[in-house]
Specification:
Helix content is 26%, strand content 18%. By secondary structure, the chain is α/β, with parallel strands linked by helices. Helix 1 packs across helix 7.
């Protein structure tokens, strides 16, 4: 991909910034960050070490008027259930939640584009109420809203990581169909470190390999599990590897396939891979975990290893977000078009009228 780091495309703010996955992606496409916010102290330190900027802390205490003007708002926000009464009240339904603070910033600063990321189950959160209010709130604030569940494995990293991306835009709809996918890095073995020192290999008595590979539709090759004492009552024969103890943190996947989602809860880095060429099982290195998210090799990680694992599990797939940033520019979402604006307002008025009729 063409390096556009020195080409100015516009400005953005990095909310719920974590360790800056959004920032790397948008910077790579020529966008400039003018404000960041992150409440976690450990993430703040990593953010400062990499970008020489200390993010603002608690988003609930931010006065939107104090934020510099910007073109794009980005954020991987936490989802909370909203209390709704069945009537469309826009972002008023979000009071008491962190999303309400995002809405306040949008209302005050009127960015041209909003890009939000969350787990795919956001659609079903609180029986669908949360997602319903999020979409309606953004529409009521004057935006086209498009969304799609995207997978990191389609953007150059061998990780099965599905996330919902919401793009709200003022002047024209974002077209997810124009995204360009990248499957050049299709296997775990493509991102392994060359070095062999300080890598933890398991002894043969610490794991069991299955009779044959269990290939999953996602591209994962499940080949074995670590030997752990398990609760045997009620477990069918030959299904021990599916028990609670042998779920993700204890499963072993072949490097000939892709890796499951790197979670934020796994602070011990229990990610084990099987290398068929040498018939050995080892742990992924922390560096390899960051590669699975598309972070650059020179990224400065937390010196606290548990925090480093947690932070990368909470972050975003950089190449995926970078393609969103590239398309925002390519599709002209920052360019005001009066005809598109008129169409949006007309469509929005019709939707509100239709909603009133069925309420």
């Amino acid at each position: 991909m063409e390096d556009k780091a020195n080409i100015y495309q516009g400005t953005f703010v990095d909310l719920f910034a974590g360790i800056g996955g959004f920032r790397i992606a948008f910077n790579n496409e020529g966008f400039k960050c003018v404000f960041s916010s992150e409440i976690n102290k450990h993430c703040q330190k990593v953010y400062f070490d990499n970008y020489n900027e200390l993010p603002y802390g608690d988003i609930t205490t931010i006065n939107p008027k104090d934020i510099p003007d910007f073109d794009i708002l980005t954020g991987g926000f936490p989802c909370q259930p909203f209390s709704i009464c069945g009537k469309r009240r826009g972002f008023e339904d979000t009071r008491g939640t962190l999303f309400f603070n995002i809405c306040n910033i949008i209302k005050e600063k009127q960015p041209k584009v909003v890009v939000l990321e969350n787990v795919k189950h956001l659609i079903h959160h609180d029986n669908g109420n949360t997602f319903k209010v999020i979409i309606e709130s953004l529409e009521d604030l004057g935006y086209w809203v498009e969304y799609k569940i995207l997978n990191a494995k389609d953007f150059g990293v061998p990780q099965n990581r599905e996330r919902i991306i919401i793009v709200a835009s003022k002047y024209k709809k974002f077209d997810f169909n124009k995204l360009q996918y990248n499957h050049t890095c299709s296997k775990i073995k493509d991102i392994l470190d060359d070095r062999t020192e300080n890598i933890k290999y398991l002894s043969k008595d610490e794991y069991t390999l299955l009779d044959g590979v269990r290939q999953q539709d996602s591209g994962l090759l499940f080949v074995g599990y670590r030997n752990k004492g398990i609760w045997k009552k009620g477990i069918r024969p030959n299904t021990e590897h599916l028990s609670r103890v042998h779920r993700q943190p204890n499963r072993i996947y072949s490097v000939e396939g892709i890796h499951p989602t790197i979670p934020s809860q796994e602070t011990s880095g229990r990610f084990f891979i099987y290398l068929p060429e040498i018939d050995e099982v080892r742990k992924l290195t922390i560096n390899e975990c960051y590669k699975l998210m598309g972070f650059p090799a020179d990224f400065k990680k937390s010196e606290i290893i548990g925090e480093a694992y947690k932070q990368i599990g909470n972050s975003v797939c950089v190449p995926l977000i970078q393609e969103i940033a590239r398309q925002i520019h390519k599709q002209g979402l920052l360019d005001k078009d009066k005809s598109n604006e008129l169409q949006r307002k007309t469509t929005r008025t019709f939707q509100q009228s239709l909603f009133a009729q069925v309420s």
